[in-house]
Amino acid sequence: MIPRGIDKPSEPERAGTLGGSPASPASGRGAATVGDLLSGSGLPRAEARRLLAAALGTAIEALVARPQQPVDAAAAARFEALLARRTAGEPIAY
């Protein structure tokens, strides 16, 4: 079961991005935004928001309010790990 708050970042939001510094263009993807990650998840929007909020250590409301906000590469990787667990059938804890 994916525990609530798993893999939260240890550092606060900084550099104008959620989770830290944005992904560098050298990573091949450039900086992903909240909206990009949510729309590309393949999950129902509410589930994707819950997982992304856990990966970023922020409230779901912050994701809704700022869909164009860049997300750093480490937070995107945490989200993708949680997404893989969820798509494998692991339930989300309340």
Q: Summary?
A:
The chain has 94 residues and is mainly alpha-helical.
* CA-based shape: globular
> Proportion of β residues?
under 5%
Strand order of the largest sheet: 1-2
The total of helices stands at: 4
Largest sheet: 2 strands, antiparallel
* Helix-strand sequence: EHHHEH
Distance between the termini: 10 Å
* Derived structural class: mainly alpha
Task: Describe this structure as you would to a colleague.
With 94 residues, the chain is mainly alpha-helical. It is built from four helices and two strands, in the order βαααβα. It has helices at 34-39, 45-56, 60-65, 73-87; strands spanning 32-33, 70-71. A two-stranded antiparallel sheet has the order 1-2. The longest helix has 15 residues, at 73-87. The chain is globular, with a radius of gyration of 12 Å. 31% of the residues are buried.
List the helices and strands and how they pair.
Elements: E1 32-33, H1 34-39, H2 45-56, H3 60-65, E2 70-71, H4 73-87
Antiparallel strand pairs: 1-2
Helix pairs in contact: 2-4
